[in-house]
Specification:
- The chain starts with about 30 loop residues before the first strand and ends with a strand.
- By secondary structure, the chain is mainly beta.
- The protein has a single domain, classed as Maltoporin, Chain A (Beta Barrel).
- The chain is globular, with a radius of gyration of 28 Å.
- It has 6 helices and 46 strands.
- It is found in: Cell outer membrane.
- InterPro entries: Beta-barrel_TonB, Beta-barrel_TonB_sf, Plug_dom, TonB-dep_rcpt-like.
- Its main location: membrane.
Length: about 800
């Protein structure tokens, strides 16, 4: 049923219209402190997008959140391959070809209800079907939410089975994108009380999102390799005697080739065992299927890219979770557990590697080209169409047990224990089709196949490699985490409350398998990569990346009136350390050595915040001022002159200073109108660099716009027959940002603004709405990278017009 208390739109602490004639602000109940409380009653910087706001803004997937949340940005490049950043605490753009075993742990934790789904390199992209709310907790939340809650935590909270009665709905939509293909979506939900104490809730969805990026014709030769360019190993040679064969992409060219689809279902059951105990169980399955890429080449025309091999992703996950709630006397007891299995199969065009790969010609050119004699280079270089076949299988189990005392008492406490075990199996096959040739070098024939994996080290593939596979990463990564945490709240007076929190953690990260390559192995018939056995490389003192420690939190809250709250907070956060597969590799000048193990990076946050309801509860103003110190910031580095594998290091210290806020106003003079807006102002700086060849002191952090802002207006009025009409419009703005603190891997994304609008009619059991997104057809640059020395920019969807219809039964 349509609710007249429709949540206001963009960045709110979530307010609503409860009556057209007398608009009032209403809090949203959240569980950000692991207990239910109003957003206005907890001393945390939190944004809560409620169910009505999610529907009104048309939020469906990961990329939609970003437009309406100042202070929140993302790196990555499309569905299933994004990473969240909060308050500008960001260093490195994730790379999809090493998304798992070599990926940094995110510094923003991602939760689905009670279960953490944070994964290295890229988080799960969960479709926003039948969500109750999205909670965004800003600043370190590590004492309650553990590792990776370093800069904040994002929680997707689903609607739970409702024992009060049968209910259901169907939502359908269709949209047209300028210069793109149409999109369609269908979602259905049903809530069924099976008995007096058992209820089921099921939701299913499918969403086909039409493409808008064109893969255009292009040609490319090895002459453009980094080796042959000025500054490369052979940049000054005369290549007039070399025949360069062209890579052509005619078979891959296509308009609107970046199609995506989300398909999934979720089933949950609630068993009210008795008045004190209940069991909630759930199962979910989702598939993301994409073709093409979601970024453009700024050197080509609008919305164009030239890709030479097929890009596709098939990303599946299954999730099973269970939560037991109960009471033991005056104590509340919760045990929650989850198991998630994710399989991501992808084919990635790797041709851009040509622009940084100094040794590419060695594999696809005649030997006399790469190592010319007295007569200079001569011979043939094959077409440089390169690709990677990637298979990443992830299994995660988590368990948490916690006890809470009576939350109405003067002294209140939560204590708990946490355990998680994650295993990632990654098989990346880097394929250079022209490398199967036999070439002459010093009068002898050599080649690059067949090749064999290191026996005893492989975790997925054994035996002979496929033709053309030059490198293969066949690695198992395990992350085991343990934690004990607690938080104590003590009412010093009726107006002052002190909060103390702490968490002990212990984390182990291990690698097993092989990261191996071909090297003149023509005629081999057995294992010839034993030296790449990671179990041998990571032995002795380099056996594991082990970290443990204690972080803390201290907060003082002052509530001088029922409509005002002020707080000051000191809090800490951390992110796990990691192992480097190319540990020990040395730069050409000998000034830098890749470490075998990388330590945690840590943040300390100082924050002053306020939450105010003013003008007889018609105006709400929440905000905070913060200062963040970052120590030993982790970065990912790609430098082929050192190694052709990505590696990581603790590279720098940094500082972030900021102010953020949100305002919601329901003016009494205009019944039915709600205005809301939010802003984030950041000043970031690298204060000390430990690897000056990569990171420079004084530079800004990545994905840290100086200003982000959003403004939303929604007006509702009564129509004949008891129906409601509504119109809504929003505008969002972001300053320019850099995409990496490693200068050679970074580009600057332009500032942008987006404008959207909607209008519709609602009755007791249905809502119909027309909407427009990106009305000005802006190319909002929301992410990008230059890892391979070529700018690749992710932009928002062009102007899109659509229709949404919801029917409740």
């Amino acid at each position: 049923m349509f609710k007249k208390n429709a949540m206001c739109g963009a960045i709110l602490a979530a307010s609503s219209v409860t009556n057209i004639a007398h608009a009032q602000l209403e809090e949203v109940i959240v569980t950000a402190t692991k207990k239910s409380a109003s957003t206005q009653d907890i001393p945390i910087a939190i944004t809560a997008l409620g169910q009505d706001s999610l529907e009104q803004l048309g939020i469906k997937d990961f990329s939609d959140y970003l437009i309406h949340l100042p202070g929140v940005t993302a790196g990555g490049g499309g569905p299933g391959v994004n990473t969240i950043y909060i308050r500008g605490v960001a260093s490195t753009t994730p790379n999809t070809t090493t998304s798992g075993v070599a990926g940094l742990a995110p510094n923003v934790a991602f939760y689905l209800d009670e279960q953490p789904l944070t994964q290295p390199g890229r988080n799960l992209d969960v479709y926003a079907a039948d969500l109750n709310r999205v909670e965004v907790l800003k600043g370190p939340q590590g004492t309650l939410f553990g590792a990776s809650s370093q800069a904040g935590t994002v929680r997707l909270i689903t609607n739970k089975p409702d024992p009060s009665g049968f209910a259901g709905n169907v939502k359908v939509g269709a949209a047209y994108t300028k210069e793109g293909d149409p999109s369609y979506n269908l979602e259905g939900m049903v809530n069924v009380p099976i008995s007096d104490n058992f209820t089921l809730r099921a939701v299913g969805y499918t969403d086909k999102q039409g493409g808008y990026i064109d893969n255009v014709a292009g040609t490319l030769t090895t002459r453009e390799s980094a080796r042959f360019q000025p500054g490369g190993f052979q940049g000054s040679e005369d290549f007039s005697n070399v025949s360069f064969l062209s890579a052509e992409n005619g078979r891959e060219t296509k308009e609107n080739f970046n199609e995506a689809s989300y398909t999934g279902a979720r089933l949950s059951g609630l068993w009210d065992i008795n008045d004190d105990w209940s069991l909630l169980v759930g199962a979910a399955k989702q598939n993301i299927d994409t073709d093409g890429v979601f970024f453009q080449d700024p050197e080509l025309d609008d919305l164009e890219i030239a890709r030479y091999e097929r890009d596709e992703l098939d990303d599946d996950f299954e999730n099973y979770n269970w939560t037991v709630n109960g009471r033991l006397g005056t104590l509340d007891v919760i045990y929650t557990g989850a198991y998630t299995e994710r399989e991501a199969q992808s084919n990635i065009d790797y041709t851009d590697y040509l622009f940084v790969g100094q040794y590419i010609p060695y594999y696809i050119c005649d030997a006399s080209v790469s190592y010319p004699g007295d007569a200079g280079p001569g011979g043939t270089c094959q077409a440089p169409n390169l690709f990677v076949k990637s298979a990443v299988d992830t299994e995660v189990q988590t368990h948490e047990f916690r006890i809470s005392t009576d939350q109405s008492g003067r002294v209140r406490a939560i204590v708990g224990a946490f355990y998680s075990d994650m295993e990632i199996l990654e098989d990346n096959q880097f394929t250079y089709p022209g490398s199967t040739q036999v070439v002459a070098f010093d009068g002898e024939s050599i080649g690059f196949g067949p090749n064999f994996s290191a026996e005893g080290a492989t975790v997925q593939d054994r035996g002979q490699w496929d033709p053309g596979v030059i490198f293969r990463n066949d690695v198992k990564r395990t992350d085991e985490q343990k934690g004990v945490f607690g938080e104590l709240n003590f009412d010093l007076t009726d107006q002052f409350t002190a909060t103390l929190g702490a968490r002990w953690y212990d984390i182990e990260v291990d690698l097993l398998g092989s990261a191996s390559g071909s090297f003149g192995n023509l005629g081999a018939d057995e294992d010839n990569n034993a030296g790449n056995n990671l179990d041998e490389i990571f032995s002795g003192e380099n056996d594991k990346a082990e970290t443990d420690g204690v972080i803390g939190k201290v907060s003082l809250t002052w509530t001088p009136t029922a409509d005002s709250l002020y707080y000051v907070t000191w809090s800490e956060g951390y992110r796990p350390g990691f192992l480097n597969r190319p540990g020990g590799s040395v730069s050409q000048d000998g000034s830098y050595t890749v470490p075998f193990a990388m330590d945690t990076d840590n943040v300390t946050n100082y924050e002053l915040g306020w939450k105010l309801d003013l003008l007889d509860a018609s105006l709400r103003f929440n905000g905070d001022i913060f200062f963040v110190e970052i120590e030993d910031m982790q970065i990912g580095i790609f430098d082929p002159s050192i190694t052709n594998l990505f590696f990581s290091d603790n590279a720098a210290d940094a500082e972030v200073t900021g102010i953020e806020g949100d305002i919601t106003w329901a003016p009494r003079s205009v019944p039915g109108l709600i205005l809301s807006g939010g802003f984030s102002i950041l000043d970031t700086e690298i204060t000390e660099s430990f690897v000056s060849s990569f990171v420079k002191e004084g530079d800004e952090l990545a994905f840290a716009p100086e200003l982000q802002a959003t403004l939303n207006a929604r007006y509702e009025w009564d129509l004949s027959g008891g129906n409601l009409g509504h119109v809504m419009s929003y505008v969002s703005y972001s300053d320019e940002v850099n995409t990496d603190i490693v200068a050679d891997n970074s580009i600057t994304l332009d500032s942008w603004y987006l404008w959207g609008a909607s209008a519709g009619v609602s009755a007791a059991d249905w809502t119909a709405e027309l909407y427009a997104e990106n009305l000005t057809d802006e190319r909002a640059e929301i992410s990008g990278n230059a890892i391979f020395n070529r700018a690749r920019v992710t932009v928002t969807r062009p102007r899109t017009l659509g229709l949404r219809f919801t029917y409740d039964f």
